[in-house]
Specification:
This protein has 64 residues and is mostly beta strands. The chain is built from no helices and six strands. The strands form two sheets. The chain has a three-stranded antiparallel beta sheet, with no helix packed on it.
Length: 64
């Protein structure tokens, strides 16, 4: 699964919102797709709402 992503982190108050700038993934993100971060998993909810300063994406998996 050699997905390559470029992410920009935007700080809003305390939360980080990750916006996808480039992706080799060919379908739209849905609730079945989840980002595997350094220490935990975050499900997609339209935007990626992440309450941590560690936002390095190491892998992307499809839960189907």
């Amino acid at each position: 699964m050699g997905f390559k992503f470029i992410f920009f982190a935007i700080l809003m108050e305390i939360d980080f919102y990750l916006l996808i700038a480039e992706a080799e993934y060919k379908t739209l993100f849905s609730e079945n797709v989840e980002l595997k971060l350094q220490n935990f998993h975050v499900k997609t909810l339209g935007r990626f709402e992440i309450k941590t300063c560690h936002y390095n994406v190491v892998n992307m998996i499809d839960k189907n």
